[in-house]
Specification:
Largest sheet: 7 strands, mixed
Radius of gyration: 18 Å
Distance between the termini: 35 Å
Low-confidence stretches: none
Shape: globular
CATH class of the largest domain: Alpha Beta
Number of helices: 7
CATH architecture of the largest domain: 3-Layer(aba) Sandwich
Oligomer: single chain
Number of domains: 2
CATH topology of the largest domain: Rossmann fold
Structural class: alpha/beta
Order of helices and strands: HHEHEHEEHEHEEEEHEE
């Protein structure tokens, strides 16, 4: 099943604990640190456009890529409200195509973990290298094996809101390193009745060593990695790691 179909309309409600503004400030700092002060920036796995909008607000010319038509519809509604000139493309991250190169690529909220085949993730990295300007910057985050194994694996997460609720059941397979999410949604309809939806999502756990190996195999240059959105080195119990890579020739 395509990820984020029924969930798209309530996605932002359940993601209101994500510090998008702080992450956007962090991304801006890192981009400027590596010389990207303005110009074209691509976001892969942009979802409903929350981060895309924030980076557009900071002066970047944004392109957003996502494979969920439902999520992009919400992103385009935000674009109408904000008036930002954002280009949204309905594409898979591992097969995306652009009309030209960009100064930087970003990807947040563990979007890369949704690519469950190493060969496909390496291909995505290769495409990023291809569409980056010379010495262009790629910043992305990913959930760690520790997070799936110790935090999410075989856990049930439930939230109840006024207009919707969800039950999120996790099953982590240590052999395949795949985390399966069984998502059950209850969304309030216009008649005040609740409609039930069910979706299955899959994410792959990658080690930093795996990620670095694929980055270098793709032609990109690995620059550094941090514990989540900090400037501290990753630790054995890091739940999220942010990676910075750079274009290194076509």
């Amino acid at each position: 099943m395509e990820a984020y179909t029924s969930f798209a309309e309530v996605y932002d409600t359940f993601m209101d604990n994500v510090p998008y503004e702080e992450w956007a400030d962090y991304l801006e700092e890192r981009l400027k640190e590596y010389g990207v002060k303005d110009g074209l920036v691509l976001e892969l796995g942009c979802g409903t456009g929350s981060m895309t909008e924030l980076l557009a607000e900071k002066g970047y010319d944004m392109i957003g890529v996502d494979n969920s038509e439902d999520m992009l519809e919400i992103a385009m509604e935000k674009r109408i409200e904000s008036g930002h000139d954002i280009l949204y493309l309905l594409q898979n991250m591992q097969e995306f195509e652009l009309y030209g190169t960009v100064k930087a690529v970003v990807s947040v909220c563990d979007s890369v973990n949704y690519i469950t085949e190493k060969a496909e993730l390496e291909e995505m990295f290769r495409l990023v290298n291809n569409y980056l300007d010379p010495q262009g910057i790629f910043i992305f985050d990913f959930n760690t094996e520790y997070k799936y194994r110790e935090i999410l694996g075989n856990q049930v997460i439930a939230e109840d809101r006024e207009e919707c609720s969800f039950i999120w059941e996790n099953y982590y397979d240590h052999t395949s390193m795949i985390n399966e999410y069984e998502l059950t949604l209850f969304v309030q309809e216009e008649d005040d009745l609740y409609r039930k939806y069910q979706e299955s999502h899959f994410q792959k756990a990658y080690t930093l060593r795996d990620i670095r190996s694929m980055i270098e195999a793709s032609g990109l240059k690995f620059v550094t990695a941090y514990d989540a959105y900090t400037q501290k080195a990753p630790m054995h119990n890091s739940e999220r790691i942010t990676v910075i890579a750079r274009e290194y020739g076509k």
